[in-house]
Amino acid sequence: MLLHLLLDALTALQPPTPAACAQTARTRMPGLRRGLTGLAALLALWAVQTPGAYAQLPGTATVTTPHVTAELQAYAPQGLQPQAPLWLGLRIEHQPGWHTYWKNAGDSGLPTEFEWRLPAGLSAGPIAWPVPRKIPVGPLANYGYEDTVLLPVPLTVDAGFQPSPLGTVDIRLHARWLVCRVECIPEEGDFSLRLNARSSTAIHGAAFEAALASQPRDLPAHPGQRVAIDPAAPAGTLDIALAGLPPAWQGQRLEFLTETPELIETGAEWQQHWQGDQWLARVPLSAYRQASPDTLPLVVTLTAADGGLQGWRAELPIQGAWPAAVAPVAAAPATASPWPRPDAAQDPLPAGPASPASWPAYLAALVGALLGGLLLNVMPCVFPVLAIKAMGMAAHAGDRPAQRRAGLAYAAGVILSLTALAALLLSLRAAGQAVGWGFQLQSPGVVAGLAALFTVLGLQMAGLFQTGSVLPSSLATRQLRHPTLNAGLSGVLAVAVASPCTAPFMGASLGYTLTLPAGQTLLLFATMGLGLALPFLILSWVPRAAGWLPRPGPWMENLRQLMAFPLFGTVVWLVWVLGQLGGGDSVAALLALLVALAMLLWSLGRPGRLRLPLAAFSLAVLLALAWLVGPTVVREEAPATASTQVPAGGWAPWSPAQEQALLDQGRTVFVDYTAAWCITCQFNKKTVLDDAEVQAIFQRRNVALLRADWTRRDAAITAALASLGRNGVPVYVLHKPGRPPHLLPEILSTNTISQALAAD
To answer: How far apart are CA 242 and CA 244, in angstroms?
Structure first.
């Protein structure tokens, strides 16, 4: 379809004569056959070596933050087989002074959470928690891990499990953890591994063996064990008796933990003593206890002489009646989970009907949309293709009725497709999706697809292949028989190539239109489409307009090839955007696919009998690469979680809570709503926001700088933009305590920022 659309916009060159093709084929056939044979052998050898060589290529197995380094590890000494030992685990190395939490975090904190994405036939069990340490925090106490800990998880392989044809298995994990010192930072990360199901994976075997050995062992049943609520004992206490502990433990002071959270006062003083081989303890119940379980899973631990921890676990029935528990209360915002729910991206935007714009303001917006559409014609991702189309229209100026029909069809294609894109966005928002204008560039798949589109256009303009020699003759003939339909499809193509420019250059302006009622919004987008199509309407309906263009001639071929370079520049920018979304592996995978795509197009354009073998081989390479590295291209890398502390100078990540906390401290807050794919944002950043003079102004006035990065979809940022009456970036907001937000222009200057800060 893409090449079919290009036929109307680009001029094809005549292919070599059949005689010349035959002579070339006879001369080069033996050498090329040998070359193809050798290349096929190399490809086969590479495919055989792939499983081992790329054992950990898709995604990343390690996530590093300022406070921890977390790594996904595997232990499968006999490969992935049913009933064979198989463990996955997250190794967390803490910075000095920082810790994460056990399944019962204690008086504060949250346990580490895992969400697995596994192939069919594999299932993950619960975390096999190692023995935690008791971490005193003033009068309170928590349970958790310092230094380095490995959290192992058993993996079950069903009898019918089948790995991929190459014997590989992709393991993906989304993990969340709360890391604390004095302050606490919620962090998360996405991890992935590619394992070879037929090979042993035991490089981390010693670490897994040590982690499994550090789990609390099950205490054998014994008649001397009990957990009781004694009416004769002081109110609000729990009596524990354990027997069967190791003889070496007798007489030692133990730590007592419950797996049920908020049951006992973890930081309070409690009593314990030994009576022969029986250990007795009385611990106070929590004043905020809400649970009254029938059985109590508990752990007792002992710190060995070498500093290591040993633990025993028992699960005992409760004897006696629980005292009245505290009535449940709604969690305060400060104690709510710091992580977004898994469906946070689906949260609806703030409800309420959109307010229609006043007619003077709306008419001004219509004029602005028309001018914005005209401006798109000179954008670097649009102008090359549309300039060639204009030259084509000038070269066929003799048939005025056909030209007028083509102009109308082209305008209809532009207006309808751009309005359809706006309608799609409005539908997604009405369904509760937290998206705004520019949402298409928040998808790695869309960015990669646009990069491929611009690569094909650029290669065709540069002369690597000719459209007429690539498409079957029947399809090319059908295109020539329906010029009006082809012109309409060219309008759709124009919107496709224009879409990467609308978000970077016009994101905030178009985002504003989405806050209007649906009818006004769609009319504004249709007006912008009219502006985009207006030059071709004028060329097709005003005979004198064609005289404004240079006369056709050989120079048009040079112009066509010259116009390929802005398209390649757009590809560079799109690849950089993909790197911000998916990381370096996504960039490498996309570049490999683009090279294979270029080889396929080149081979399709070759004359003679070698065309089909070359094309078949090139297609096989492209499909193999797509199967091997395609998932890496569309994988979205989780952003590293940074500290919520605001540095003395420079930028800190934005969050609603961080913004409010700074305002509560009486500080002025400047928020930069930005995205990697927004060129206006990057221009303002390089020329104004990062300027030494502007930074000095911010520091003199003690302004806190927060950056809301909307490169990826973020429900909180989308909602914040909507509350400001915007739905795209860039947006710059100055918050002063006790005053309404002050919106700055989309194009910043030092003077603009100085005046905004000086305003009362």
So the answer is: 7
- How many other CB atoms are found less than 10 A from the CB of residue 644? 16
Q: Which residue has the tokens 């646009």?
A: 450
Angle between the 555-562 and 383-395 helix axes, to the nearest 10 degrees?
Answer: 160
The CATH classification number of 651-758 equals: 3.40.30.10
Specify the pLDDT at position 634: 77
For residue 38 the two structure tokens come to 């050798």
pLDDT at 429: 58
pLDDT digit string (tens) for 21-31?
333 334 434 44
Can you tell me whether residue 152 is helix, strand or coil?
strand
39-98 pLDDT, tens digit each: 333 333 333 333 333 344 445 889 988 889 999 999 988 888 887 888 999 999 999 989
The residue ranges of every structural domain in the chain are: 2-15+359-632, 62-215, 226-319, 651-758
Single out the residue of 372, 375, 370, 409 nearest to residue 389, CA to CA.
409
For residue 595, pLDDT beyond 80? yes
Evaluate whether 62-215 and 651-758 have a shared fold: no
Cβ 85 vs Cβ 75: under 8 Å: yes
CATH superfamily, with its number, for domain 62-215 = Thiol:disulfide interchange protein DsbD, N-terminal domain (2.60.40.1250)
Reported pTM: 0.45
User: CA angle, 480 as apex, 476 and 485 as ends, to 5°?
Assistant: 105
Tokens (6 digits) for 217 = 């062992």
Long-range Cβ contacts of 180-184 (<8 Å, 24+ apart): 180/98, 180/99, 180/100, 180/101, 180/109, 180/142, 181/67, 181/97, 181/98, 181/99, 183/644, 183/645, 184/108, 184/109, 184/338
The beta strands (E) that lie in 132-206 are given as 133-137, 140-145, 148-157, 168-180, 184-196
| CATH number of the 226-319 domain | 2.60.40
Per the CB < 8 A criterion, the answer to whether 131 and 191 are in contact is no
746, 506 contact by CB (below 8 A):
no
